[in-house]
Amino acid sequence: MVFRSAGLLLLVSSILLAQSSATVTDQSSDAPDETPPPAVCPAGGPIGAIHLTVRPPQSTETPLPVDKIANLSEGDSILYSPLIRGREVRHGEVALVLVPVKHDSGDAILVTDPKPADKPQEWKVDQTMSIAAFVYGPSGLSKKKVKNFLSQDELLIAQLADYAEKTSQTEALVAALQDANSSADSVNAALNGFAAQYGVTVPIDRTAPVAVQAQTLFTTMNPQLATYDPLVPSSSARVAQTASLAAAAASLFFGNPIGLAAGGTAMVLDLRSIAFPGTQFRSAFAQPEPVNPRSSKSEAGLNLCGQRTPAPPHTRVAYIWANRIPNAEIPKLQIGSAHFILEGQKTPVPVDLTEKDWKYLDRAREWSLADENGKATTIKVLKLANQKSIEIDLTKAKVAPGDYHLSAYWDWKRFDANGTISVRPESNLRDARLEASSQDRLLAHSGKIAVTLEDADFEFTNKVEIKKSNDEFAKPEPVPFLLPKGLRQGPQQHMDIQIDSANLDPGNYQLLVSDATGKPQSVPIKVLPSPPEISNLPILANEGATSQHFVLKGQHLGLLARLEATGAKLTLDPAWGNDTERDLTVQLTSGAKPGSRFAVSAYVKDRTEPVMLPDALKITGPLPLIASSRLSLPDNFPIYLNANEFPAGSTLTAVLDVKNVGPRSLLRISCEGDTQGETDIAVGEQSDKWSVQQLSPDQLFLSFDTSKLPAGCLVQAVIDNRSGGRSEPYALAHLIRFPKIEQLAPTTEVTQDGRRIYQLTGSNLEMLERAGWDQLSSYDVTGLPAPIAGEGQRQSLRISLPDPPTPASNLYVWLRGDRLGRGTNVTITPLTPPNVPATTTPTAAPQGKL
Fold first, then answer.
1. Cα–Cα distance between 191 and 217 in angstroms, integer?
2. End-to-end CA distance of the chain
3. CA distances from 692 to 588, 705, 715 (A)
4. Residue 243 belongs to what H/E stretch?
5. What is the per-residue pLDDT across 271-325, written as a single tens digit (0 to 9) for each?
6. Strand 699-705's sheet: what is its strand order?
7. N- or C-end of the chain: fewer Cβ atoms within 10 A?
8. Of 117, 111, 183, 194, which Cα lies nearest the Cα of 148?
């Protein structure tokens, strides 16, 4: 990349220049113990480390760095001393360019006489100054007598003021970019301040990574940097990234060919022609020189950086570093409402003060927090110009949670801020959860849903994301959120968020909640499936019935945990039919009258609050009842029937004794357990297959063709009053396939045991298992019936029986599965002599039941 290469080259070259500077003659091993580490500049090269301080008239006060003072007034002294490395020899001369606040009748610009740069120097200030510029000429300075020329040069004053502002902003930006611990807020403020000095308006997202913010600014100011990639993947490039960003800022200040001139050509030319002939002025900015722990000096120095390229022939090089002096009164600082900060973190705190006080607030120094007992802890405070906030840095200060008062020094006077700084412990979201009603509303594929988190302090939340649990490929997605008071506005026990569930499937998820620590904490939540839908409400319950059955129908019925209603106990069976049906038992526990309606509370799996189903339980009149029945058997049926037996395929005729039958009642006929073959017959309906007629309020007459019902069917009847409920099933008859015996004829064949072979003629003869002449003696039917050719289903069957007690004895038969024999009206048909037509017909015995 063009920029990254340029930045690294500048960094390397600056180190080499520091080691080979013309002002350094020796770096031997026997250097004094006070030797500071070699100076390094992000761009250009080091031109000399200095102490440049201001001492007040009261000599007992400690001198302060000139770039930190707020006032430079009559009686003050500006002190200079070189900061020498090893056996370095500081060549050249130094001078000051001062601009008085009031110059109506005096000099507009004061230029001091050059003094040797290798010795401490002191300049007395005889009036209040607004700008103090330090000039260093490594090859000396040639100064004109400038009093008459500089007295009214307002343009030059404006140029110096602008240059001082640009210098200050560049120094702030370089410092922020070089500090790996700088917060995104502080870098954003420095970037915005730097851009404003050059008249560049560019929106910079302060939530973006530092490198992205810097790239946005630098590529706007210089399109040649558009190919610079701050998010480089290699570790070696990341190490150089901070240096590259700082180098970019410094290069723009110096007017590097890839950058933008900051100093202003007009100012340099005017100052050269008016005050320092034959001199090429070059911009310089200062970086803090770290305090040497082995040095006797307590204050930090300044390392001046400038371009070290060769000068044109017969031209001296001079470096100018300018600083604006605000000469402002102690600021009246009011702490804003968002004064709650995290322990051990960097936190912006809004402040309220006048524009003038705000402009120079960064001149306040030695900030501290004092507790209620007056114990003060020194902290670092940074002005965030683009937010009108100050950044309170507790990363290197041990400040326990509690309320504190903020104070600082304004030059040599301490002042207190109005308001309180509340230090809070790190957020703990261990008990955080979705509010119950919010969890109930969080349905899959339902779009944007507003929900609430509770049971934790969310005051420092700055980011919320959602991620599917137990899915290693899931990526967190951002979630909008809203704090009730606002960020850092004090303890807040709930927080509103908006989850878009349009693309979320049901299941377990995590809300990742982050604060200034950058460590997200997980809050488990569930995205719920669609709730159950019951399509056949209301549930009907009849007055007076102790236990009743009802089938719920709908969708997702398996999600129902339980149902509750006043005056009734509702018991659910497992869902079936793909969760579309579910059996319900209703037990009434109160004497509610018919027509009463009650709400039902439906409790759903994974939901706290029930879904209210209004008027979902209806009390109807007493249940209909089938008390008894009387069957009418077919006439002259040859085989006796047991109780409740009826021949399959015949028309069933019965009288039913009933209760609570209404005018809209149905009689439902079916085989037991067969819900698909039900036949509903309205009371009063008649057809060629069935008829149901009401003989009296308590009696129904039924005629029903059973030919469509299979043999073995237990025919049952249910009275359904429709909205009034149903009766319990009542067993009417058990359909049996009976054999039809047309003739029992003896043959001349006799078995070895003396029994005669008889031949039965009829149909369904396979149903016979045994036969005999009474219930005490029976003989197995061992053969199978044979079809009679050309006569359809007619059959003949050979059985062996002893001779009957009398020629008129009736045959007894045992059907398959019978324990007792059944009487019949079948008697022996005598053998017919050859060529004599048979005239004897079976004699019918009296009908009866066993």
1. 7
2. 110
3. 32, 12, 16
4. helix 235-254
5. 544 556 677 778 888 888 765 555 545 456 888 888 888 888 888 888 888 888 9
6. 625-632, 651-659, 699-705, 690-696
7. C
8. 111
